[in-house]
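Researcher: Here's the sequence for the chain we discussed earlier.
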Amino acid sequence: RAFAALQSAGEDNFVYQSYDPLAEAERFMNELRSKGQTQEASAIQRYLDMRKTKESKQTKFRVLLREAYELSKAKQFEADLSAIAESQLEYEKTTAPDVSFEEDLFNLRGVCHLRLDDLVQAQCAFEETLKVNPNSSEACVGLGNVFYLAEMDNESKMMFEWAVKNDPNNQAAQ
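Model: Thanks. This is the structure I predict for it:
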């Protein structure tokens, strides 16, 4: 989260200066070191290292998921599934759950399996999405397509109706 401070530069002029808490912690750590307070500075350094490690892990799984989306756009679904699996492995190494990432991951996996005519795996992926977010309109559309292709008309109709209920602006559901 970025914080901001306004500093007066004259009577009516203000300069916007962004505030980065991690940069401020690093500045404070260096100040402590210069005063010979190495134990306190080391504690701050450990915290900063932990934050950087956590952020790099989170960034990595998001980058991999973006690559998976690009492969999906290029209709390279087999390679896309590999990228999705790699992204999920990186995600599982992080400590903080991210519902939106999980929803995107499972939806994209479902779309790939659907495009590869693997209805069973597509259904499983979209159902996983609904476990993470029961209101996922995209997952409902995906299941609607799975059921339509499986000639399960009542179930298909119901899923498309839920998709519209969850997101009336979802064009794929209408």
